[in-house]
């Protein structure tokens, strides 16, 4: 039987989602849990696949993985979470067709970038974001991978303010390596007045204009949702979600305390 899981994780402390030798990754922890529980024997026979990769320090609310197993009764969130670190948790599962591929079957993905917005003109960021919507060549907004096409279609970008923070939601058919983080860099450059919309239009014409961009920091980026061409009957695990909520609350408390500690380290004049 082929099973799919929705996975969430705090990417801080992990070298991305994709398994790598000698470093901690999200998939590495998942493989360890699945094999210890004897849900799968190895990656090849289980035909393990995911909806995509996230880079070092990037988080996810809805990464999707799939694998074959002859123990579907164990391939449920609350069982798998018992072998996972608290920074990673499964929260929904589904039985899927034998040919289900969470990457190739995906029709769109949505990312959210959260940043401090106090130093930016949000109206300028919103105006600039509209230029990026649609089908374009994003060669200037990615880290290139060989001969892979750099043409992508951004379906929508939503920019909103929440207190002192700015949230940028970007939805596209698929994304290139570092594409979201480099788009955020470009939008903040326009929002701070360093560059203008004419420059942004030039950046979308890589055949005549080329410029490198540094990607925005990874810690602000979260993979929020992956949508599919065929509906999947997901079964959410209420117990797993409650436990995850408790763990996330602990993270939030710790970071609020650390923010205050950092503030206290600055000598007052």
Task: Detail the topology: elements first, then pairings.
Blueprint: E1 2-9, H1 26-36, H2 43-46, E2 49-50, E3 59-68, H3 77-81, E4 88-96, E5 106-116, H4 122-132, E6 134-137, E7 151-162, E8 165-172, H5 179-191, H6 197-203, E9 221-228, E10 235-236, H7 238-264
Parallel strand pairs: 3-9
Antiparallel strand pairs: 1-3, 1-4, 2-3, 4-10, 5-8, 5-9, 6-7, 7-8
In words, what does this structure look like?
With 269 residues, the protein is of the alpha+beta class. It folds into 2 domains: 2-104 and 230-250, Alpha-Beta Plaits, CATH 3.30.70; 111-221, Alpha-Beta Plaits (2-Layer Sandwich). The chain contains 7 helices and 10 strands. It has helices at residues 26-36, 43-46, 77-81, 122-132, 179-191, 197-203, 238-264, and strands spanning 2-9, 49-50, 59-68, 88-96, 106-116, 134-137, 151-162, 165-172, 221-228, 235-236. A hairpin with a 2-residue loop joins β7 (151-162) and β8 (165-172). The chain is globular, with a radius of gyration of 20 Å. The chain starts with a strand and ends in a 5-residue tail after the last helix. The mean pLDDT is 94.
Brief digest:
By secondary structure, the chain is an alpha+beta fold. The chain has seven helices and ten strands. The chain starts with a strand and ends in a 5-residue tail after the last helix.
Approximate strand percentage: 25-35%
Largest sheet: 10 strands, mixed
Order of helices and strands: EHHEEHEEHEEEHHEEH
List the quaternary state of the chains: single chain
Structural domains: how many: 2
Task: Kindly provide the name of the CATH class of the largest domain.
Answer: Alpha Beta
Radius of gyration, taken over Cα atoms and rounded to an integer in Å = 20 Å
**Beta strand count:** 10
Mean pLDDT: 94
Individual helix count: 7
Please give the CATH architecture of the largest domain. Answer: 2-Layer Sandwich
Helical content stands at: 25-40%
- Shape by Cα distribution: globular
């Amino acid at each position: 039987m082929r099973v799919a899981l929705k996975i969430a994780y705090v990417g801080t402390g992990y070298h991305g989602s994709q398994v790598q030798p000698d470093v901690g990754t999200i998939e590495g922890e998942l493989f360890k849990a699945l094999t210890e529980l004897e849900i799968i024997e190895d990656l090849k026979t289980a035909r393990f696949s995911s909806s995509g990769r996230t880079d070092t320090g990037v988080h996810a609310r809805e990464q999707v993985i799939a694998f074959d197993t002859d123990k579907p009764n164990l391939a449920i969130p609350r069982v798998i979470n018992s072998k996972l670190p608290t920074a990673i948790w499964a929260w929904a599962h589904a039985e899927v067709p034998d040919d289900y591929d969470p990457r190739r079957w995906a029709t769109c993905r949505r990312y959210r970038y959260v940043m401090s917005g106090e130093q930016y003109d949000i109206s300028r960021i919103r105006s600039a974001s509209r230029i990026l919507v649609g089908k374009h060549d994003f060669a200037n907004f990615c880290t290139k991978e060989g001969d892979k096409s750099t043409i992508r279609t951004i379906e929508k970008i939503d920019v909103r303010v929440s207190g002192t923070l700015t949230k940028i939601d970007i939805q596209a058919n698929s994304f290139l390596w570092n594409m979201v983080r480099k788009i955020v860099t470009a939008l903040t450059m326009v929002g701070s007045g360093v560059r203008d919309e004419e420059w942004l239009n030039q950046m979308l014409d890589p055949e005549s204009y080329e410029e490198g961009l540094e990607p925005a920091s990874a810690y602000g980026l979260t993979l929020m949702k992956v949508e599919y061409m065929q509906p999947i009957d997901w079964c959410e695990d209420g117990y797993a979600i409650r436990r995850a909520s408790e763990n996330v609350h602990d993270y939030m408390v710790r970071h609020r305390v650390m923010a205050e500690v950092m503030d206290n380290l600055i000598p007052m004049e």
